[in-house]
Write a structure and sequence with these properties.
This protein is α+β, with helices and mostly antiparallel strands. It is globular and about 55 Å long. It has helices spanning about 50-60, 70-80, 160-165, 255-285, 295-310, 325-335, 365-370, 375-385, 400-415; strands spanning about 90, 110, 115-120, 125-130, 135-145, 155, 180, 190, 225-230, 235-240. It has 2 domains: about 50-250, no CATH class; about 270-415, no CATH class. The protein starts with about 50 loop residues before the first helix and ends in an 8-residue tail after the last helix.
């Protein structure tokens, strides 16, 4: 389904946890097997995510898309969902429902904003992952209409769950991102970073099976490479973006390094939010609305882990010399800034050693965060307040200078509407 399927860094929803309370290596989440059963009822609830609402409007005829050509349709879809074409990432590993169409000569494209992810293969179907505040990722797939006036038949995808809610995902719907070395005739010869996602994943383990542009002199990663087995071992071959395919088949001529960084951060955020949502709901159902001491302790731990991710506690350093980032991508990304009276926001870039100037995730405004149960959200806000307290510094957040803590607190106070009283 949209984004990443098994054995590829392709993007979309993985449930991954980083047990990083003390900076430890990210590990897999506790496994669930009942997301389709009460109290979650994944398939029985009516989705309330952005794309599901858009689907209703499209089928009712209140929204029109341009079906004059395949690319025109894609561009009109992205505009309707407010997804910038500049977020494009290209993946050539054959690890999708549409694997027969994907190759270094016909890579799959992924586009995203904070809540919706679109996958597109030239000559194939459109895949969608859209984040529901209660259910987490919801998956759709449909053909592109071949003539004007036709409304696409959009299906709720079930096969996507084999990977996006399987064993590697802890049995919960999530964004799956993997890194593999594709073979010259398909398949994957080697894979990295199983069961982990987010900004703590070393850059040297990322991008396998993906095209990467705009990385400058940073080449110590697995992007833009295919492999072949030999008696001497694995032989790697570079495949430069645009050499085996024509960029004109896509809206933009990039698969920018910065887009990959943003997507990785978002996937890790969504997955942790989904884990927190399902875990809280399970505990409250088990206790009929009340929590046992053990469950309270577990949720407090979950909130601490989530807060660490929210504040980029384990973010890997950017390559020496920093990241430039595609100018058009940066401009599109910054259009959604929520600014204070002083003109600062959570989306302001640093890009020298870290992605953002003010290290608190802009995903705090997303459906994934807003869907946290009140009990869990309250615990996160409490821990967030402690982490940003400059009067009583928390050793766990010593990496944040006092000025940055104060800036983050001010941004949240001026841009969030549900902070606890007196926060």
């Amino acid at each position: 389904m949209v984004a990443v399927m098994r054995n590829t860094v392709v993007a979309f929803f993985l449930l991954v946890a980083c047990n990083i309370m003390t900076g430890a290596t990210p590990t897999a989440l506790k496994k669930y097997s009942d997301f389709d059963q009460p109290p979650h009822d994944y398939w029985k609830r009516t989705p309330n995510d952005r794309f599901s609402k858009f689907k209703v409007a499209l089928e009712a005829g209140t929204v029109k898309l341009d079906a004059s050509s395949e690319q025109s349709f894609l561009l009109s879809l992205l505009r309707a969902l407010e997804i910038p074409a500049t977020s494009q990432m290209l993946v050539f590993s054959t690890t999708s429902l549409q694997l027969s169409l994907i190759s270094p000569r016909n890579p799959r494209a992924i586009y995203f904003n904070e809540d919706v992810y679109i996958g597109y293969v030239p000559g194939g179907k459109v895949e969608v992952i859209s984040t529901d505040p209660d259910l987490g990722p919801v998956f759709y797939i449909f053909d592109i209409p071949r003539q004007e006036g036709l409304v696409p038949r959009i299906e709720r995808a079930t096969r996507c769950m084999n990977c996006h809610a399987g064993d590697e995902m802890g049995w919960l719907p999530g964004i799956l991102i993997k890194s593999v070395i594709p073979g010259t005739i398909g398949g994957s010869l080697e894979s990295f970073r199983q069961d982990i996602t987010g900004h703590a994943v070393p850059l040297t383990l990322r991008f396998g099976g993906w095209h990467v542009t705009g990385a400058g002199n940073f080449t110590n990663h697995w992007g833009n490479i295919i492999g072949q087995s030999s008696p001497q071992g694995l032989v790697k071959y570079p495949i430069l973006p645009g050499r085996q395919f024509n960029f004109a088949r896509y809206p933009v001529a990039t698969s920018d390094f910065l887009a990959h960084l943003l997507h990785e951060h978002q996937a890790g955020f969504v997955n942790r939010a989904v884990e927190a949502i399902y875990k809280t709901r399970s505990f409250l159902d088990e206790g009929q609305g009340k929590l046992s001491l053990a469950h309270s302790t577990e949720l407090e731990k979950q909130a601490r882990l989530f807060t660490r991710y929210l504040l980029f506690a384990d973010e890997v350093s950017l390559p020496m010399g920093g990241v430039t980032g595609d100018a058009a991508l940066k401009a599109d990304f910054l259009k959604g800034r929520r600014v204070t009276r002083a003109g600062i926001s959570l989306k302001d870039f640093d890009l020298r050693t870290k992605i953002f100037l003010n290290r608190c995730s802009y995903m705090i405004y997303s459906s994934a965060f807003q869907g946290l149960p009140p009990m869990m959200k309250g615990l996160v806000y409490k821990r967030l307040g402690e982490a940003l307290n400059t009067a009583i510094p928390d050793k766990e957040y010593a990496y944040l200078p006092a000025a940055e803590k104060m800036a983050i607190r001010q941004i949240l106070r001026e841009t969030m509407s549900d902070l606890p009283k007196g926060w």
